[in-house]
Amino acid sequence: APPDQVLENVLESVLEFLTAARDRNAASLVCRSWYRAEAQTRRELFIGNCYAVSPRRAVERFGGVRAVVLKGKPRFADFSLVPHGWGANVSPWVAALGPAYPRLERICLKRMTVSDDELALIPKSFPLFKELSLVCCDGFTTRGLAVIAEGCRHLRVLDLTEDYFHEEESEVVDWISKFPECSTSLESLVFDCVSVPFNFEALEALVARSPALRRLRVNDHVSIEQLRRLMARAPHLTHLGTGSFRSEPGPGGALSVSELATSFAASRSLVCLSGFLDANAAYLPAIYQVCANLTSLNFSFAGLTDEEFIPVIRHCVNLRTLWVSIL
């Protein structure tokens, strides 16, 4: 092989070890040879502004991408300062990524508008797809989630974080039951922002057949009685979103604090707690069992008074991140 080709092959092998986007960007500026080699070896494509580059230009330059991180609307959209229909539609990107990256495994979208039809293209276009994260996105419903759950057979991560979700209860699809009935590869399932009811029995069965599950955050339709059942099915969780953290007594009466505390005591791997979406402060002593291990605690939606909050925080000796809204 010509000397230039040998050097380029060696350079590509070296660049495989560069993972930080800033380092790879710097390497691509050295010369044309480095520019080409960096483009061929980049596996994650980060676009901080979906309007900064055209989808066609991105896929032409980077041919071996396995993961795409794409941001749309500016941050002040989180404070309702961007008008409805402003843009940041994911459709041109999905249309371009499908033919270019058949081996794509991961998509993370932030502040983008995503329709159910666009979600339906993911399992059709990417047979090896494993991770979908939607952060502060809108435009989709449970119909789109059902397509992802049913079509992405290798799914490991489905994280829905602070998405704007509006759907009539009569139109809700039982998306949880669409996951494969065999053992799954699921490692993270986050849907606390999906405000509509869901099939709890299907979720409990899904958790039971997902031995690799480590992150689970459920919505406010999960009571502490149901939470306890989920924790029994997944004792190795490291991140837990508790749902409502309120009792819905059945025929046997309300769950006692000591019974819930026993469940938390068995969950020795927990390092992150969130949820508490409609919390009953009387049950907070139940989490004392895991407080010493926690590095992150989110009470943003708990609506606690300082008298209710202080006894909990006294037990959290290793805490690094705390989100709280004190009444």
UniProtKB/TrEMBL annotation:
Single GO cellular component term: SCF ubiquitin ligase complex
Sections of the chain in a coiled coil: none
Transmembrane annotation, as ranges: none
Pfam families xrefs: F-box_5, LRR_6, Transp_inhibit
Limits of the COI1 F-box domain: 4-43
Residue stretches making up the Transport inhibitor response domain: 65-109
UniProt cross-references to SUPFAM superfamilies, sorted A to Z: F-box domain, RNI-like
Domain of life, per lineage: Eukaryota
Subunit structure comment from the entry: Part of a SCF (SKP1-cullin-F-box) protein ligase complex. May interact with auxin and auxin-responsive proteins.
Protein name: F-box domain-containing protein
